[in-house]
């Protein structure tokens, strides 16, 4: 075949594909209209109850030929499609059963499949429009345009599913973003346009509804922010005591009054992973990362395997919150001092005051030092990561506690106990943590309120120097948590004090259960 002949064939195929896409769009809009009309008819019907609890009898106005999917699942493989496009169109997106899910279940999609048309995405591009929005919704109006795998809101995506399933939330709910704009302006910084520096969050996540307003309105694409920025006051009993003892002096701005009330800017961030970048941080190949994520989420995200063209994943995990004390603009100003604490969640200590570890004391110390730095003309930042129990979770953590307390709870055995149960000492893997520092425009840290080498090395490894490391003062360490802190110091955690010998470490013992 001649070159010209090939071109003709290619053009013909292209035009067929285009017509297919148009046909699919037309079909979807017709079925959407049918569904709307049915809903309208039902809502105005004389005997139709309007409260949500009575809506279970709405079958009469919906699909007259319900399938086993009516109940939300099926044992008949012929009803489940592993492909989108033509098969999706063949049965239409018309409402069926009790919920208005499309009748065909789309288990996965494939690149270049007819009807699949992902939004262009150029991760790390400095121009947010060229970078492109993160499109992850499986809404019928958006599913064909997805350029990301997973779902919004991290682990809370499951509650979203429950809300829809229990009819608390309509399938087609569209958030109203009026007045939700960030309370303070952060960035943009050159780091936002560097795909090596930010791989675990969307640097434009706080501006989504405004940056991509046209796409959302004109193309009916469902987009949601992954970052939100607000302002608040906060009160901690320890800080009231700090003011009373004279360690903290109210200035009316950062520390507002004698109760130790603080003014704070808060940033909530949900994880958005650029898979090639995440793989690179861990020194592994992208394929291995995708396969492992697929397997250990119970096969929840088959597109990790079938859509190599999609590089972004919104994982079902907790995110982080930044607490900024003082003027946020000073974070990125290298002429101003910065104090920083990176804190990983420990619910038992942080919230409930459990004394087996140093978490809350260190958190409070971090906040107090951050406030002081802000009062001295610099800025203080505390970043709280949802990585409960070294990212092993509370169940594993309590099993470890039991094994410790049923043994002799010696500092020399501290890490061994965790390793016996979890297989590793720690699953927090700080490799992705520094992204938030790049996002905040931080280029150096004057005072790092942490003794962790993993955190230190991850930050310095990302090219952000740490000028001073500050350990938790002795008088803030609860007696029962000596086991933890001494074990950590001996394992290499930062200290300016004494690093114990093996024999000394064996002598450090925690409280044993009274049995
Ligand atoms: Zn703790």
Q: Could you explain how this protein is built, in words?
A:
It is a single chain. With 515 residues, the protein is an alpha/beta fold. Helix content is 34%, strand content 10%. It has helices at 3-44, 86-91, 128-131, 157-165, 208-211, 213-218, 237-244, 275-282, 286-295, 303-306, 347-350, 359-375, 388-391, 394-406, 414-422, 435-439, 453-461, 482-490, 502-507; strands at 80-81, 105-106, 148-150, 227-234, 262-269, 273-274, 312-314, 320-325, 338-344, 379-385, 447-448. The protein has a six-stranded mixed beta sheet with strand order 4-5-8-10-9-11. A three-stranded mixed beta sheet has the order 3-7-6. It has a two-stranded parallel sheet with strand order 1-2. Helix 8 crosses helix 9 and helix 14 crosses helix 15. Residues 346, 349, 357, 359 line the site of zinc ion. Keywords: GTP-binding, Hydrolase, Nucleotide-binding. Residues 30-76 are annotated as: Disordered.
| Contiguous uncertain segments of 5+ residues | 42-70, 84-97
Question: Strand tally, please?
Answer: 11
Element order, helices and strands? HEHEHEHHHEHEEHHHEEEHHEHHHHEHHH
Mean pLDDT, all residues: 86
GO molecular function: GTP binding; GTP cyclohydrolase II activity
Keywords: GTP-binding, Hydrolase, Nucleotide-binding
Protein name: GTP cyclohydrolase
Pfam family, one: GTP_CH_N
